[in-house]
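Recap from last week: sequence in, structure out.
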Amino acid sequence: MATVLAIETSCDETAVAIVNNREVYSSIVASQILVHSQYGGVVPEVASRQHLETINEAIAQALEQAKLNWQQIDGIAATCAPGLVGALLVGLTAAKTLAMLHNKPFLGVHHLEGHIYATYLSEPTLDPPFLSLLVSGGHTSLIYVKDCGNYETLGETRDDAAGEAFDKVARLLNLGYPGGPVIDQLAQTGNPRAFALPEGKVSLAGGGYHPYDSSFSGLKTAVLRLVQQLEKDGKQIPVPDLAASFQETVARSLTKRAIACAVDHGLNTIAVGGGVAANSSLRSTLQAAATQHNLRVLFPPLKYCTDNAAMIACAASHHLSLGHTSLLTLGVESRLPLTQVMKLYGRE
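Predicted structure tokens:
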């Protein structure tokens, strides 16, 4: 398999990694959380500037950590979609420049495909077909993974992504940014059954509900109204109980849909990816339900749940081994369906 250096700058982490097949030689992640926390969320222009200031050092560190030189690198990759356009351009431009300078193949990688490959980094036996549950700040999807570059979306969120809901609820509770880790921490001391919060359901035109699609905007609104009512009544807001109840509702909703989707499509493995894959309630709830249905559920190590370049390099290494490369004229896209991933390699 190919040894690939990959760059990930789709949002607020400047990441560079070198991977051969599923073996990580180096992984550097420079987080911008402290920079953006003062704004309560990611500011795109600030993110782009931070990438520019950090990327050269991250590349140098990745090579040094891997103890490799450019002659030992088979290809160079970068996330090109989806994400913040300015941020993506920084990583893509750097990767193209390095590819031309060192005469290496260039690959543009889909960010969500990277999250699918995050589980490959710790699971040598994982191979398609399987179901991927992608849960992050911008995406919540159930993906039928048929092969490298061959994906079918079976379910998705109709409004807020799961991670986005965590951030918004954290803001309502004055917990700061990012919301996922702090809500998870507070929930450890709260009662997950203190408040009955609604699971979002997506109605079908002919009646009934979509079995795999999610909705989290109603849940977020329910928390808002609960907080407003408590404040109106002059009561103290039980933040740990609210955090635990909200988190348990999200975990239950995602688990119910993932299990049903896997069973209905005859898939015995569920691989979870994205930042919300680090959530303790989702991990325990989904694992317990999977055991009851004789399904295997796989979570990446915590360091590969959030954005990183190792997952991007792993996906690129597989594509390059199959002869897939991208043109140097490839641009960035803020939105690109995962089902169109082969478009990045000139194959529809």
